[in-house]
Design goal:
The chain has helices at about 35-40, 45-55, 95-100, 160-165, 170-195, 230-250, 285-290, and strands at about 110-120, 135-145, 150-155, 215, 260-265, 295-300, 310-315, 330-335, 335-345, 350-360, 360-365, 370-375. The protein is α+β, with helices and mostly antiparallel strands and about 375 residues long. The chain has two domains: about 15-55, no CATH class; about 95-375, 2-Layer Sandwich (hypothetical protein PF0899 fold). Strand 9 and strand 10 (about 350-360) form a beta hairpin.
Amino acid sequence: MLTSVSKEHFHLSPRACAALGHEEGIPREQIKSAKDAALFGVGVMDKGVGMDMLRQAYAADSLQGGVTAAAIPGYIQFMQNWLAGLVTVITAARKIDELVGISTVGSWEDEQVLQRVLEMTGYTPPYTDYGNVPLSDWNMVTVPRTVVRFELGMRVGVLEEKRAAREGVNTSQWKRESCALQLEIGRNLIGFNGYNSGQNNTYGFLNDPGLPSYVSVANGASGSGLWSSKTLLEICADIRAAAAALQNQSQDNINPEDVATTLAVPTIAYQYLSTISDLGYSVRSWIEATYKGKMRVVSAPQLNTANGGSGVFYLYAEQFKDNSTDSGRVWEHVVPAKFMVLGVQKLAKGYEEDYTNATAGVMLKRPFAVVRYTGIS
């Protein structure tokens, strides 16, 4: 056990503990050799390193360490490049206008859109000289559709607008476009599904009361009715059966080879119209050749699961002219107001705008001109 006292080489009072060269510290010139430096606890080092340390005044004093977080020296914003433009999020295609068109009828404030349907009545008994003259007559009913209105607005604040502009975004423009888009999405959905608010009569392409019942397609050789499992001949047979049913249902008033028709198919099944035979012919080319360009094909995602989760297709005539005095359209998509500004208000800290639309949904005016099949997807 050592009992000797350790030798003290040097002592620096608290008042003198300042950086080398400081007026209260030890003058630089006092440290002339490694021996002198050793008095301050500084070990032997290269002369150049020692001079650098002296210049930085770190020999007898040091900065507090560990204050900043560990980081790579350099700021990421100086190494960024921004691509031009903005990428917007897409929405499902809106196909109701392509399927049945659009008719601007009436006004935004209307309550109903009405269609009169007239039936001529009478029969011809055998002729007699003295019998009463048999008389013909007519009967008329009115089919109502209720107009429903929707609205969506936007509000832009002063600070919001200025900060968005710094990012290169016109916030009022995008909010205004968003209003138009959402109103169109709603109108498209009502065009397919109608709108139920209690006592109203607003129906769509999938649920109009006049629509005929679905017919299940025949199974193919694979044991399935799905077009994804069928051959070209089997898919063509489904379309041919629909065309035959349409001609028979209309009592030969509609021949799909002569009358313009629409084949509405599920989006998920559309590409199976490209199924080809061993000779290189596709279903689509068969449709073109057989129906002489009269049958057009339109896909819609709403048909993917329209019948309890099963995919369906429609075949219908687009127009039928007889002695009716209307347009002859099979479907009528009534839209009194597609997009309308309700008002603009200036606020103390910005401004507000409100927009609206009005639709009466889709009306099937000639049920005999539509057939529906299910089970293809």
